[in-house]
Protein backbone atom coordinates (compact mmCIF):
# COMPACT_ATOMS: atom_id res chain seq x y z
CA UNK A 1 0.00 0.00 0.00
CA UNK A 2 1.46 3.34 -1.02
CA UNK A 3 2.02 5.33 2.20
CA UNK A 4 2.02 8.56 0.32
CA UNK A 5 -1.45 8.06 -1.12
CA UNK A 6 -2.70 6.67 2.17
CA UNK A 7 -1.59 9.80 3.98
CA UNK A 8 -3.23 11.91 1.31
CA UNK A 9 -6.47 9.95 1.57
CA UNK A 10 -6.51 10.36 5.33
CA UNK A 11 -5.82 14.06 4.84
CA UNK A 12 -8.87 14.37 2.59
CA UNK A 13 -11.12 12.82 5.22
CA UNK A 14 -9.68 15.09 7.89
CA UNK A 15 -9.97 18.12 5.62
CA UNK A 16 -13.63 17.42 4.83
CA UNK A 17 -14.46 16.68 8.48
CA UNK A 18 -16.88 19.22 9.94
CA UNK A 19 -16.85 17.76 13.45
CA UNK A 20 -19.03 14.68 13.58
CA UNK A 21 -19.87 14.55 9.90
CA UNK A 22 -17.88 14.71 6.68
CA UNK A 23 -18.58 16.69 3.52
CA UNK A 24 -18.40 14.70 0.25
CA UNK A 25 -16.21 17.57 -1.02
CA UNK A 26 -15.88 21.25 -0.24
CA UNK A 27 -17.88 23.68 -2.37
CA UNK A 28 -19.97 21.34 -4.52
CA UNK A 29 -21.49 19.33 -1.63
CA UNK A 30 -21.31 21.33 1.62
CA UNK A 31 -23.51 19.09 3.86
CA UNK A 32 -23.76 15.51 5.08
CA UNK A 33 -24.90 13.13 2.33
CA UNK A 34 -26.26 9.78 3.40
CA UNK A 35 -24.31 7.18 1.44
CA UNK A 36 -21.22 9.36 1.15
CA UNK A 37 -21.23 9.48 4.92
CA UNK A 38 -21.37 5.69 5.27
CA UNK A 39 -18.30 5.41 3.04
CA UNK A 40 -16.63 8.16 5.11
CA UNK A 41 -17.33 6.24 8.33
CA UNK A 42 -15.58 3.15 6.90
CA UNK A 43 -12.67 5.25 5.62
CA UNK A 44 -12.20 6.83 9.04
CA UNK A 45 -12.47 3.42 10.67
CA UNK A 46 -9.20 2.43 8.95
CA UNK A 47 -7.26 4.93 11.07
CA UNK A 48 -9.60 6.51 13.65
CA UNK A 49 -12.28 4.08 14.85
CA UNK A 50 -13.95 6.56 17.16
CA UNK A 51 -14.41 9.12 14.41
CA UNK A 52 -15.83 6.39 12.16
CA UNK A 53 -18.54 5.45 14.69
CA UNK A 54 -19.31 9.10 15.28
CA UNK A 55 -19.98 9.63 11.57
CA UNK A 56 -22.71 6.97 11.59
CA UNK A 57 -24.18 8.29 14.83
CA UNK A 58 -24.52 11.76 13.33
CA UNK A 59 -26.22 10.27 10.27
CA UNK A 60 -28.71 8.36 12.46
CA UNK A 61 -29.50 11.54 14.40
CA UNK A 62 -31.29 12.87 11.30
CA UNK A 63 -33.78 9.99 11.19
CA UNK A 64 -37.40 11.00 10.67
CA UNK A 65 -40.12 9.78 12.98
CA UNK A 66 -41.37 7.42 10.26
CA UNK A 67 -37.93 5.78 10.00
CA UNK A 68 -36.52 7.45 6.89
CA UNK A 69 -32.91 8.60 7.03
CA UNK A 70 -32.70 11.49 4.55
CA UNK A 71 -30.27 11.82 1.70
CA UNK A 72 -28.94 15.21 2.88
CA UNK A 73 -28.69 16.59 6.41
CA UNK A 74 -28.30 20.36 6.34
CA UNK A 75 -26.44 20.80 9.62
CA UNK A 76 -25.37 24.40 8.95
CA UNK A 77 -26.64 26.81 6.29
CA UNK A 78 -24.43 27.15 3.20
CA UNK A 79 -25.38 29.56 0.41
CA UNK A 80 -23.06 27.71 -1.98
CA UNK A 81 -25.56 24.86 -2.49
CA UNK A 82 -28.91 24.71 -4.20
CA UNK A 83 -31.55 23.37 -3.42
CA UNK A 84 -31.06 23.95 0.31
CA UNK A 85 -33.22 23.37 3.39
CA UNK A 86 -35.70 26.16 2.59
CA UNK A 87 -36.52 24.47 -0.73
CA UNK A 88 -36.73 20.91 0.59
CA UNK A 89 -38.65 21.58 3.81
CA UNK A 90 -37.94 18.13 5.24
CA UNK A 91 -39.75 17.19 8.45
CA UNK A 92 -37.05 15.50 10.53
CA UNK A 93 -35.22 16.56 13.69
CA UNK A 94 -32.45 18.17 11.58
CA UNK A 95 -33.19 20.26 8.44
CA UNK A 96 -33.05 17.75 5.61
CA UNK A 97 -34.09 16.71 2.14
CA UNK A 98 -37.30 14.69 1.75
CA UNK A 99 -35.94 11.55 0.06
CA UNK A 100 -33.46 8.84 1.05
CA UNK A 101 -30.40 7.29 -0.62
CA UNK A 102 -28.92 3.82 -1.19
CA UNK A 103 -28.90 2.18 2.26
CA UNK A 104 -25.28 1.10 2.57
CA UNK A 105 -24.86 2.21 6.21
CA UNK A 106 -25.66 -1.18 7.80
CA UNK A 107 -23.16 -2.89 5.50
CA UNK A 108 -20.41 -0.46 6.43
CA UNK A 109 -21.32 -0.77 10.08
CA UNK A 110 -20.81 -4.54 9.80
CA UNK A 111 -17.36 -3.94 8.31
CA UNK A 112 -16.48 -1.46 11.02
CA UNK A 113 -17.53 -3.90 13.69
CA UNK A 114 -15.21 -6.53 12.21
CA UNK A 115 -12.38 -3.98 12.26
CA UNK A 116 -13.14 -2.67 15.76
CA UNK A 117 -15.01 -5.15 17.99
CA UNK A 118 -14.70 -2.69 20.88
CA UNK A 119 -17.31 -0.60 19.08
CA UNK A 120 -19.97 -3.26 19.63
CA UNK A 121 -22.01 -1.20 22.12
CA UNK A 122 -22.16 1.69 19.64
CA UNK A 123 -23.19 -0.62 16.81
CA UNK A 124 -25.85 -2.21 19.01
CA UNK A 125 -27.23 1.21 19.87
CA UNK A 126 -27.62 2.05 16.16
CA UNK A 127 -29.03 -1.31 15.10
CA UNK A 128 -32.72 -0.51 15.90
CA UNK A 129 -32.53 2.77 13.93
CA UNK A 130 -31.14 0.91 10.93
CA UNK A 131 -33.90 -1.67 11.20
CA UNK A 132 -36.53 1.09 11.27
CA UNK A 133 -34.97 2.65 8.19
CA UNK A 134 -34.93 -0.68 6.38
CA UNK A 135 -38.59 -1.21 7.31
CA UNK A 136 -39.40 2.24 5.87
CA UNK A 137 -38.11 1.05 2.47
CA UNK A 138 -40.17 -2.13 2.74
CA UNK A 139 -43.30 -0.11 3.62
CA UNK A 140 -43.05 2.72 1.09
CA UNK A 141 -40.76 1.89 -1.75
CA UNK A 142 -41.49 -1.63 -3.04
CA UNK A 143 -42.88 -2.65 -6.39
CA UNK A 144 -43.16 -6.44 -6.79
CA UNK A 145 -40.41 -6.72 -4.21
CA UNK A 146 -37.95 -4.42 -5.99
CA UNK A 147 -37.05 -1.09 -4.37
CA UNK A 148 -38.19 2.04 -6.18
CA UNK A 149 -36.75 5.52 -6.29
CA UNK A 150 -39.07 8.52 -6.27
CA UNK A 151 -36.42 11.01 -7.43
CA UNK A 152 -33.26 10.41 -9.50
CA UNK A 153 -31.21 11.73 -6.55
CA UNK A 154 -32.57 8.95 -4.37
CA UNK A 155 -30.61 6.35 -6.36
CA UNK A 156 -27.47 8.48 -6.07
CA UNK A 157 -27.07 8.03 -9.84
CA UNK A 158 -28.54 11.43 -10.56
CA UNK A 159 -28.55 11.67 -14.36
CA UNK A 160 -28.29 7.98 -15.29
CA UNK A 161 -30.01 7.07 -18.58
CA UNK A 162 -32.30 4.84 -16.50
CA UNK A 163 -34.44 7.86 -15.68
CA UNK A 164 -34.79 9.32 -19.18
CA UNK A 165 -38.23 7.85 -19.91
CA UNK A 166 -39.71 8.72 -16.52
CA UNK A 167 -38.20 12.22 -16.70
CA UNK A 168 -39.84 12.85 -20.09
CA UNK A 169 -43.21 12.21 -18.48
CA UNK A 170 -42.70 15.08 -16.00
CA UNK A 171 -44.14 18.45 -16.96
CA UNK A 172 -41.77 21.02 -15.45
CA UNK A 173 -42.97 24.11 -17.32
CA UNK A 174 -44.11 25.81 -14.13
CA UNK A 175 -41.00 25.07 -12.06
CA UNK A 176 -40.11 28.78 -11.83
CA UNK A 177 -36.79 30.64 -11.77
CA UNK A 178 -33.84 29.35 -9.79
CA UNK A 179 -30.06 29.62 -9.77
CA UNK A 180 -27.97 26.48 -9.86
CA UNK A 181 -24.81 26.43 -7.75
CA UNK A 182 -23.27 23.16 -8.88
CA UNK A 183 -22.13 24.62 -12.22
CA UNK A 184 -20.23 27.39 -10.42
CA UNK A 185 -18.06 24.68 -8.80
CA UNK A 186 -17.71 22.19 -11.67
CA UNK A 187 -17.59 22.37 -15.50
CA UNK A 188 -21.23 22.24 -16.73
CA UNK A 189 -20.20 19.60 -19.30
CA UNK A 190 -19.66 17.20 -16.39
CA UNK A 191 -23.00 17.94 -14.72
CA UNK A 192 -26.68 17.26 -15.41
CA UNK A 193 -28.41 19.60 -17.87
CA UNK A 194 -31.00 22.34 -17.21
CA UNK A 195 -33.68 20.00 -18.56
CA UNK A 196 -32.69 17.53 -15.81
CA UNK A 197 -32.56 20.19 -13.10
CA UNK A 198 -36.03 21.52 -13.95
CA UNK A 199 -37.38 18.04 -13.34
CA UNK A 200 -35.32 17.41 -10.19
CA UNK A 201 -36.84 20.57 -8.73
CA UNK A 202 -40.33 19.80 -9.93
CA UNK A 203 -40.21 16.51 -8.04
CA UNK A 204 -39.08 18.35 -4.91
CA UNK A 205 -41.99 20.78 -5.30
CA UNK A 206 -44.42 17.86 -5.60
CA UNK A 207 -43.02 16.35 -2.40
CA UNK A 208 -43.27 19.66 -0.53
CA UNK A 209 -46.86 20.15 -1.75
CA UNK A 210 -47.97 17.13 0.32
CA UNK A 211 -45.54 17.64 3.22
CA UNK A 212 -43.53 14.56 2.14
CA UNK A 213 -46.47 12.29 2.95
CA UNK A 214 -45.24 8.99 1.51
CA UNK A 215 -48.73 7.57 1.14
CA UNK A 216 -49.88 10.52 -0.96
CA UNK A 217 -46.64 10.55 -2.92
CA UNK A 218 -47.09 6.93 -3.84
CA UNK A 219 -50.26 8.07 -5.62
CA UNK A 220 -49.23 11.39 -7.16
CA UNK A 221 -45.51 11.25 -7.82
CA UNK A 222 -45.05 10.81 -11.59
CA UNK A 223 -41.59 9.33 -11.00
CA UNK A 224 -41.42 5.80 -9.59
CA UNK A 225 -38.67 3.58 -10.93
CA UNK A 226 -37.65 0.19 -9.54
CA UNK A 227 -33.90 0.42 -9.37
CA UNK A 228 -31.06 -2.09 -9.13
CA UNK A 229 -28.94 0.27 -6.97
CA UNK A 230 -31.60 0.42 -4.27
CA UNK A 231 -32.75 -3.18 -4.55
CA UNK A 232 -29.26 -4.68 -4.38
CA UNK A 233 -27.88 -2.36 -1.69
CA UNK A 234 -30.94 -2.91 0.51
CA UNK A 235 -30.79 -6.68 0.01
CA UNK A 236 -27.14 -6.65 1.03
CA UNK A 237 -27.81 -4.33 3.95
CA UNK A 238 -30.61 -6.58 5.21
CA UNK A 239 -28.24 -9.56 5.17
CA UNK A 240 -25.65 -7.58 7.14
CA UNK A 241 -28.29 -6.27 9.55
CA UNK A 242 -29.54 -9.81 10.18
CA UNK A 243 -26.00 -11.11 10.80
CA UNK A 244 -25.32 -8.34 13.31
CA UNK A 245 -28.73 -8.91 14.91
CA UNK A 246 -27.93 -12.59 15.47
CA UNK A 247 -24.68 -11.59 17.13
CA UNK A 248 -26.54 -9.11 19.37
CA UNK A 249 -29.18 -11.72 20.31
CA UNK A 250 -31.99 -9.93 18.44
CA UNK A 251 -34.96 -11.63 16.78
CA UNK A 252 -34.16 -11.38 13.06
CA UNK A 253 -37.11 -13.36 11.65
CA UNK A 254 -38.72 -10.24 10.17
CA UNK A 255 -35.47 -9.28 8.45
CA UNK A 256 -35.23 -12.79 7.02
CA UNK A 257 -38.68 -12.31 5.51
CA UNK A 258 -37.58 -9.02 3.99
CA UNK A 259 -34.59 -10.76 2.45
CA UNK A 260 -36.85 -13.31 0.75
CA UNK A 261 -39.09 -10.51 -0.59
CA UNK A 262 -36.11 -8.59 -1.98
CA UNK A 263 -34.61 -11.71 -3.57
CA UNK A 264 -37.85 -12.19 -5.49
CA UNK A 265 -37.91 -8.46 -6.27
CA UNK A 266 -34.39 -8.57 -7.70
CA UNK A 267 -35.54 -11.19 -10.19
CA UNK A 268 -38.20 -8.77 -11.50
CA UNK A 269 -35.31 -6.52 -12.60
CA UNK A 270 -33.75 -9.17 -14.83
CA UNK A 271 -34.26 -8.05 -18.43
CA UNK A 272 -33.47 -10.91 -20.84
CA UNK A 273 -33.40 -8.48 -23.76
CA UNK A 274 -30.28 -6.74 -22.48
CA UNK A 275 -28.92 -9.77 -20.62
CA UNK A 276 -28.71 -7.85 -17.39
CA UNK A 277 -30.42 -6.34 -14.39
CA UNK A 278 -32.31 -3.27 -15.50
CA UNK A 279 -34.38 -0.52 -13.94
CA UNK A 280 -38.16 -0.70 -14.40
CA UNK A 281 -40.38 2.33 -14.94
CA UNK A 282 -43.28 1.42 -12.67
CA UNK A 283 -45.63 4.14 -13.97
CA UNK A 284 -45.07 3.20 -17.62
CA UNK A 285 -44.86 -0.52 -16.87
CA UNK A 286 -41.69 -1.19 -18.86
CA UNK A 287 -37.99 -1.83 -18.59
CA UNK A 288 -35.66 1.06 -19.35
CA UNK A 289 -33.17 -1.07 -21.31
CA UNK A 290 -30.10 0.29 -19.52
CA UNK A 291 -26.97 -1.66 -18.65
CA UNK A 292 -25.11 0.27 -16.00
CA UNK A 293 -22.64 -0.32 -13.19
CA UNK A 294 -25.70 -0.71 -10.92
CA UNK A 295 -26.76 -3.70 -13.05
CA UNK A 296 -23.62 -5.41 -11.75
CA UNK A 297 -24.43 -5.09 -8.04
CA UNK A 298 -26.04 -8.55 -7.93
CA UNK A 299 -22.87 -10.18 -6.57
CA UNK A 300 -22.62 -7.54 -3.84
CA UNK A 301 -26.21 -8.45 -2.92
CA UNK A 302 -25.19 -12.11 -2.57
CA UNK A 303 -26.72 -13.23 -5.88
CA UNK A 304 -24.07 -15.12 -7.82
CA UNK A 305 -25.74 -14.92 -11.21
CA UNK A 306 -23.90 -16.48 -14.15
CA UNK A 307 -26.44 -14.90 -16.52
CA UNK A 308 -24.99 -11.47 -15.70
CA UNK A 309 -21.35 -12.34 -16.43
CA UNK A 310 -21.24 -11.89 -20.25
CA UNK A 311 -22.51 -8.29 -19.98
CA UNK A 312 -20.04 -7.54 -17.20
CA UNK A 313 -17.17 -8.89 -19.25
CA UNK A 314 -18.26 -6.96 -22.31
CA UNK A 315 -18.52 -3.70 -20.36
CA UNK A 316 -15.09 -4.23 -18.83
CA UNK A 317 -13.59 -5.00 -22.23
CA UNK A 318 -15.10 -1.82 -23.67
CA UNK A 319 -13.38 0.48 -21.15
CA UNK A 320 -9.79 0.98 -20.11
CA UNK A 321 -10.38 1.84 -16.44
CA UNK A 322 -12.83 -0.15 -14.40
CA UNK A 323 -16.54 -0.36 -14.85
CA UNK A 324 -18.22 2.49 -16.73
CA UNK A 325 -21.43 3.84 -15.24
CA UNK A 326 -23.19 3.26 -18.55
CA UNK A 327 -22.53 0.64 -21.22
CA UNK A 328 -19.71 2.19 -23.30
CA UNK A 329 -21.18 0.65 -26.43
CA UNK A 330 -24.65 2.11 -25.88
CA UNK A 331 -25.92 5.09 -27.79
CA UNK A 332 -25.74 8.23 -25.65
CA UNK A 333 -22.67 7.13 -23.65
CA UNK A 334 -20.78 10.27 -22.48
CA UNK A 335 -17.40 9.59 -20.94
CA UNK A 336 -17.31 12.71 -18.74
CA UNK A 337 -20.94 13.40 -17.84
CA UNK A 338 -21.50 12.17 -14.31
CA UNK A 339 -23.60 8.96 -14.39
CA UNK A 340 -23.80 8.64 -18.18
CA UNK A 341 -20.40 7.06 -18.66
CA UNK A 342 -17.66 7.89 -16.14
CA UNK A 343 -16.12 5.26 -13.88
CA UNK A 344 -16.84 5.75 -10.16
CA UNK A 345 -14.53 4.28 -7.51
CA UNK A 346 -17.42 3.79 -5.07
CA UNK A 347 -19.35 1.68 -7.54
CA UNK A 348 -16.18 -0.12 -8.58
CA UNK A 349 -15.73 -1.02 -4.92
CA UNK A 350 -19.29 -2.24 -4.39
CA UNK A 351 -19.24 -4.33 -7.56
CA UNK A 352 -15.61 -5.45 -7.20
CA UNK A 353 -15.86 -6.50 -3.55
CA UNK A 354 -19.08 -8.37 -4.35
CA UNK A 355 -17.29 -10.26 -7.11
CA UNK A 356 -14.44 -11.05 -4.72
CA UNK A 357 -16.83 -12.41 -2.14
CA UNK A 358 -18.42 -14.65 -4.76
CA UNK A 359 -15.02 -15.95 -5.93
CA UNK A 360 -15.01 -14.27 -9.34
CA UNK A 361 -11.38 -13.32 -9.02
CA UNK A 362 -10.66 -12.36 -12.63
CA UNK A 363 -13.09 -9.46 -13.07
CA UNK A 364 -12.72 -8.52 -9.40
CA UNK A 365 -8.93 -8.10 -9.69
CA UNK A 366 -9.29 -6.11 -12.89
CA UNK A 367 -11.74 -3.67 -11.27
CA UNK A 368 -9.64 -3.27 -8.12
CA UNK A 369 -6.42 -2.71 -10.05
CA UNK A 370 -8.03 -0.19 -12.38
CA UNK A 371 -9.53 1.71 -9.47
CA UNK A 372 -6.11 1.96 -7.81
CA UNK A 373 -4.52 3.11 -11.09
CA UNK A 374 -7.02 5.97 -11.35
CA UNK A 375 -6.11 7.25 -7.91
CA UNK A 376 -2.38 6.69 -8.38
CA UNK A 377 -2.46 8.74 -11.58
CA UNK A 378 -4.85 11.52 -10.58
CA UNK A 379 -5.62 11.48 -6.86
CA UNK A 380 -9.10 11.34 -5.39
CA UNK A 381 -11.61 12.75 -7.87
CA UNK A 382 -15.37 12.26 -7.78
CA UNK A 383 -15.25 10.15 -10.96
CA UNK A 384 -13.01 9.58 -14.00
CA UNK A 385 -13.16 9.13 -17.77
CA UNK A 386 -13.19 5.33 -18.24
CA UNK A 387 -11.23 5.58 -21.51
CA UNK A 388 -8.52 8.10 -20.63
CA UNK A 389 -8.56 8.12 -16.77
CA UNK A 390 -9.00 11.94 -16.77
CA UNK A 391 -10.34 13.05 -13.38
CA UNK A 392 -13.75 14.77 -13.42
CA UNK A 393 -16.42 16.30 -11.22
CA UNK A 394 -15.39 17.44 -7.75
CA UNK A 395 -11.83 16.98 -6.42
CA UNK A 396 -10.51 15.86 -2.99
CA UNK A 397 -13.48 13.57 -2.69
CA UNK A 398 -14.24 11.85 0.60
CA UNK A 399 -15.71 8.57 -0.61
CA UNK A 400 -13.02 8.10 -3.26
CA UNK A 401 -10.38 8.49 -0.53
CA UNK A 402 -12.33 6.01 1.63
CA UNK A 403 -12.29 3.45 -1.18
CA UNK A 404 -8.50 3.77 -1.32
CA UNK A 405 -8.16 3.31 2.43
CA UNK A 406 -10.57 0.39 2.72
CA UNK A 407 -9.97 -1.49 -0.50
CA UNK A 408 -8.18 -0.18 -3.61
CA UNK A 409 -4.97 0.62 -1.75
CA UNK A 410 -4.56 -3.01 -0.68
CA UNK A 411 -3.56 -6.19 -2.47
CA UNK A 412 -6.43 -8.25 -3.93
CA UNK A 413 -8.20 -10.61 -1.51
CA UNK A 414 -7.96 -8.02 1.23
CA UNK A 415 -10.37 -5.35 2.28
CA UNK A 416 -10.86 -3.49 5.53
CA UNK A 417 -13.65 -5.10 7.46
CA UNK A 418 -13.99 -8.34 5.50
CA UNK A 419 -15.36 -10.89 7.94
C1 LIG B 1 -26.50 17.12 -6.21
O1 LIG B 1 -26.76 18.18 -5.66
O2 LIG B 1 -26.01 17.02 -7.33
C2 LIG B 1 -26.67 15.90 -5.45
O3 LIG B 1 -26.22 14.80 -6.14
C3 LIG B 1 -28.05 15.71 -4.97
O4 LIG B 1 -28.03 14.63 -4.13
UniProtKB/TrEMBL annotation:
What Pfam families does the entry give? MGH1-like_GH
Q: Which GO terms describe its biological process?
A: oligosaccharide metabolic process; protein N-linked glycosylation
For this UniProt record, the keywords arranged alphabetically read as follows: Glycosidase, Hydrolase
Ranges of residues in domain Mannosylglycerate hydrolase MGH1-like glycoside hydrolase: 29-400
Provide any one GO MF term from the record.
Answer: Glc3Man9GlcNAc2 oligosaccharide glucosidase activity
InterPro entries per the record?
Answer: 6-hairpin_glycosidase_sf, 6hp_glycosidase-like_sf, Glycoside_hydrolase_63, MGH1-like_GH
Family membership noted in the UniProt record? Belongs to the glycosyl hydrolase 63 family.
This chain belongs to the protein called Mannosylglycerate hydrolase MGH1-like glycoside hydrolase domain-containing protein
What species is this protein from? Litoreibacter ponti
What lineage is this protein's organism placed in? Answer: Bacteria, Pseudomonadati, Pseudomonadota, Alphaproteobacteria, Rhodobacterales
Amino acid sequence: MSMDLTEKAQGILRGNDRGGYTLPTKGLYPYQWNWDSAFAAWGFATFDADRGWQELETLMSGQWEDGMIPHILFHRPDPGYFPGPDVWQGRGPIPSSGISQPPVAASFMAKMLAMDPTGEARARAMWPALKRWHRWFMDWRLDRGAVCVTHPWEAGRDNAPDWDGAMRAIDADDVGEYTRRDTSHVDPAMRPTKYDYDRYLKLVQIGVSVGWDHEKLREINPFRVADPTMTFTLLRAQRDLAAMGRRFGEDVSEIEEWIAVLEDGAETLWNPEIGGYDSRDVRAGRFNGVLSNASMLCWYAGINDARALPALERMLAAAEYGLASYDPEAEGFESLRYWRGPTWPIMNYLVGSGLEEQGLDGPAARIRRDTARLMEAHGFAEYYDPHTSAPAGGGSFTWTAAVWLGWAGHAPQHQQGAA
